[in-house]
Each structure stands twice: as structure tokens, then as C-alpha cells.
Amino acid sequence: MPHVRRLLPADLWHEVPPVSALHPVVAAKMKTLETEAKARGIRILITDGFRSSAEQDAIYRQGRSDPGAVVTNAKGGQSYHNYGLAIDFALRKKNGDVIWDMNYDGNGNKQADWMEVVAIAKRLGFSWGGDWKSFPDYPHLQMDFGLSIGELQRGYRPPEDLQVAVL
Predict the structure, then answer these.
(1) At how many degrees (to 10) do helices 113-123 and 24-39 cross?
(2) What's the rounded Cα separation, in Å, for the pair 72 and 57?
């Protein structure tokens, strides 16, 4: 994309090393999410975290040129996963089976475990893909730190030592 870059003012771009892991705050909040869910009798499995652009492109091809159902509208560089700012989760039953059942009540408290996890995640500062109107992504949790995908593509990054308030 060098030709596009030359057309835009230089101060729009920030040279940064490529992202290769979850942002430290996202990683820490992910661990807290797992711990708090476990304390409520809910076992979760983080099915995805940081994802390279090549991995994102492979997922994007699913349901298009590759077999399977469409699971994303984001190509490489267009997902918060590509910047270490998103995770996906599933539930783990007592027998070890991994499920994506939003109505499952494994802890027997008459509340869907999925929504209990979402409530914890939101309190920890994550936003939930299930709230998206155009293409809900129920396993998806992200922390964008106020940055758009366009800003991330231009090299803007949240500070590594950024703290997120927890209510």
C-alpha cells in the first residue's frame, strides 16, 4: 500500500512494530474473566486471541471460496484480533465438551452461563460482538481503547501500560 501512504499526510501514519500477541491489558482481563467465571461455576475456553492477517484471511475465505459457513466479514487487518485486542470464547461442560450454547446453564442458577460470562466481560471493560446489529458475533469480546480499525491500520496503538477501569 505504499502508493496510498504517499497520498496521505505523513502525520496520519505511525511506524510501529507488528503486533504478535494479545495486548497486555486484554491478556490480563482475559485471565480475570476466566477466574471470575470459574468462581461462578462456569468453565470457559478462550478459542481465539491474537490472529495474524493471514489467519484472518483464511477465516474470511470460509463460506466464500472455502467450504463452511461464513463466520466473519473481516479480512486480514480489519479485525481487532489482528491487533491483539480481541478474544473469542466458548463454554466447557463438566465432561469437557466445548459448546457455543447461549442457553446452557451448567452451574444450575437458572441463568444462561453465556450471558453470565458476557456480563463479567462487560464489567471488565470488554465490548461484546453479540451487541452488533449488522453481523452479531456472539463468542467475540474486544477492547478497542477508543481506536477504530482505520486508526489501527495506520499504526495507532493503545499504550502497553494502559489501565482499564473495572466497576
Answers:
(1) 140
(2) 10
Cα–Cα–Cα angle for 43, 37, 55, rounded to 5 degrees: 65
Residues 54-87: tens digit of each pLDDT: 999 999 999 999 999 998 999 999 999 999 999 9
d(CA 79, CA 158): 15
Domain ranges of the chain: 16-50+84-148
Q: Does domain 16-50+84-148 have CATH number 3.40.50.980?
A: no
Query: Cα separation of 69 and 63, whole Å?
Result: 4
pTM given for the model: 0.89
In tens, the pLDDT along 13-34 reads 667 888 999 999 999 999 999 9
What is the Cα Rg of the chain in Å? 17
